[in-house]
């Protein structure tokens, strides 16, 4: 897996967080609206940068599997660990006291999940063994183009 590291500034703390991304090559294209996919990924990455614990990495990966392509954005969280089930509810905030500092109103993940569903995909969250929050986006692979068929004209001849 090829990885690239990117440093971003956390909107909450002003501290740097490091993003590491990787994907096996080649990865299959997905059946998705490009603008909606961009909106989902932008929201996932924006949240990761906003809420990552100071001095930690944000890990971004993509992997093709039998169901399609799964993208995962993972990061260590601060003291207010979000509820992995409730975080997709409208207006949910793990730490309501930080709402004004972080910006937004708590709709991004709810909207992202609806967009994924509209594209026949799904989104969910869980925690890995180290306690890092992982947000998963699974979208179906794009249909493979049909192989080209050579057409041959057959003419009937009289005997």
Write a structural description:
- The chain is of the alpha+beta class.
- It has a single domain (2-139), classed as Heat Shock Protein 90, CATH 3.30.565.
- The chain is built from 3 helices and 6 strands.
- The chain has helices at 34-51, 99-102, 108-118; strands at residues 2-9, 16-23, 57-65, 68-75, 122-127, 133-139.
- A 6-stranded mixed sheet has the order 1-2-3-4-6-5, covered by helices on one side.
| The CATH top-level class label | Alpha Beta
How many individual domains? 1
Radius of gyration: 21 Å
Question: What coarse outline follows from CA principal-axis ratios?
Answer: elongated
Secondary-structure class: alpha+beta
Q: What is the H-and-E element order?
A: EEHEEHHEE
- Specify the CATH architecture: 2-Layer Sandwich
For the biggest β-sheet, the strand order reads 1-2-3-4-6-5
Taken as a percent bin, the fraction of beta residues is 25-35%
Q: How many angstroms separate the termini?
A: 65 Å
Query: DSSP helix count?
Result: 3
Helical content stands at 10-25%
By CATH, the topology is Heat Shock Protein 90
- Output the CATH homologous superfamily: Histidine kinase-like ATPase, C-terminal domain
Largest sheet: 6 strands, mixed
Task: List the quaternary state of the chains.
Answer: single chain
Number of strands: 6
Overall mean pLDDT stands at: 78
Question: Uncertain segments of ≥5 residues (pLDDT<50)?
Answer: 1-13
């Amino acid at each position: 897996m090829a990885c690239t590291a990117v440093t971003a500034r956390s909107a909450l703390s002003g501290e740097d967080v490091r993003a590491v991304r990787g994907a096996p090559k080649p990865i299959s294209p997905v059946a998705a609206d490009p603008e909606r996919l961009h909106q989902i990924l932008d929201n996932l990455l924006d949240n990761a940068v906003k809420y990552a614990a100071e001095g930690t990495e944000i890990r971004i990966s993509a992997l093709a599997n039998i169901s399609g392509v799964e993208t995962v954005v993972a990061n260590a969280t601060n003291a207010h660990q979000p509820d992995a089930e409730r975080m997709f509810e409208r207006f949910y905030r793990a730490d309501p006291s930080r709402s004004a500092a972080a910006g937004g109103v708590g709709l991004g993940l709810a909207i992202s999940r609806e967009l994924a569903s509209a594209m026949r995909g799904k989104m969910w969250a869980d925690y890995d063994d180290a306690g890092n929050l992982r947000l998963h986006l699974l979208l179906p692979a794009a249909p493979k183009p049909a192989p080209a068929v050579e057409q041959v004209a057959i003419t009937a001849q009289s005997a």
